[in-house]
Amino acid sequence: MNKPFAYPWDREKPYKLYHAVMLFCRLAAPLLYRFRVVGRENLPESASGVILACNHLNAADPAFLMAATRLRWRFMAKAELFEKKPAALLYTHTNAFPVNRGTVDVRALKFALAALREGSYGLGIFPEGTRSPDGQPHEPKAGVAMFARRARADILPCAVCCEGKLRLGGRLTVRIGEVIPFGELGLGDSPKRSETHAAAEKIMAAITELWKQGHD
Hints:
By secondary structure, this protein is α/β, with parallel strands linked by helices. The chain has one domain (17-213): 3-Layer(aba) Sandwich (Glycerol-3-phosphate (1)-acyltransferase), CATH 3.40.1130. The chain contains 6 helices and 7 strands. A 7-stranded mixed β-sheet has the order 1-7-6-2-5-3-4, sandwiched between helices. The chain starts with 16 loop residues before the first helix and ends with a helix.
């Protein structure tokens, strides 16, 4: 009987497969979809110490964001994706890491902060915590603001936009917004819960505005 997959939490060094997968995504996205990127001029020179925050429509959203930004990210993914070894190995070697949703996952929190501080990769988060059931942005969880406060990280808001259910050959747009500096989030060293939620809502508002622009 196969042993359950054990995520290598002690490994700090990123895996090299990410670069090959990013190149594949860059080449495949325009071939499989009517793929467009808007706002690439807003990208920072490096993802180091930056949190990419985006709405969540499709399981392939991380791939679309990799293709659009061409920067290096560690994406936070639901722990269920790491239960079976073939998929778990793919996610792990593309530098994603698991988080148990609905709980305070201290191990994932520490790993995410270490990834932000490590310097070569940014952190990719979907603030809603799960895929949208109707294609529209929804209320964010407080986690994105908590990570930003702990790492004093700037936020890169993005939006994935598509009409209805994504299909091969369909229109798909990634819109990249202006970086939100950490100082504009209103988070001190010990913010109140209301301030943390306000910061999360500010981030989600920027994402929602980008999403709306993609549907005008």
